[in-house]
Amino acid sequence: EDVPSQTFDNKDYFCGKETFPVYESIFTEEGETIRKIAIEIEKPPQIEIHVWTIRKGILHHLYVEKLSKREFEGLPYFKLITRTTLSQWKIFSEGEAQISQMCESRVCRTELEDLVKVLYLEKSEKSHC
Predict the structure, then answer these.
(1) Could you tell me which residue ranges the Chordin-like protein 1/2 C-terminal domain spans (predicted)?
(2) By the 8 A CB rule, do 81 and 24 touch?
């Protein structure tokens, strides 16, 4: 199911917090799903890609790769899904580590979906900033 993408470049939208673009790529082949979640970081300028290999709902392999922006631009299939803060990305990364241990032997489809939702920021009201 498609989650609607957010495209907010305006810092006021998130109370002046710096946000970074998050991309996703999902590729299915021979009963295996490769799901990639990538964040574009400015310092140092690079793309961090978290790669999940999922077979029958079970997370079989997880690894992280880092690419230059130029290398990333040459990759097909990635689409911008949201912008997130570094603190939300840290929560995502920590949750990912927990899920990778928890889901080695059981289906974790909902846990993986919920983890990706962590990256989507709630619109803040000006009065709460």
Answers:
(1) 10-129
(2) yes
What is d(CA 6, CA 24) in angstroms, rounded to the nearest whole number?
A: 12
Q: Who's near 31: CB < 8 A, 6+ residues apart? A: 55, 56
On the CB side of 105, how many CA atoms lie within 13 Å of its CA?
0
Domain boundaries, the chain: 20-119
Q: Cα angle at 50 between 108 and 9, to 5 degrees? A: 110
72 sits in which H/E element: helix 69-73
Q: What is the pLDDT along the chain (129 residues), one digit of tens a residue?
A: 444 444 444 444 556 678 999 999 999 988 899 999 999 988 888 999 999 998 887 888 899 999 999 999 988 899 999 999 999 999 999 999 888 888 777 788 788 889 999 999 876 544 455
State the CB neighbour count (10 A cutoff) for residue 94.
Answer: 12
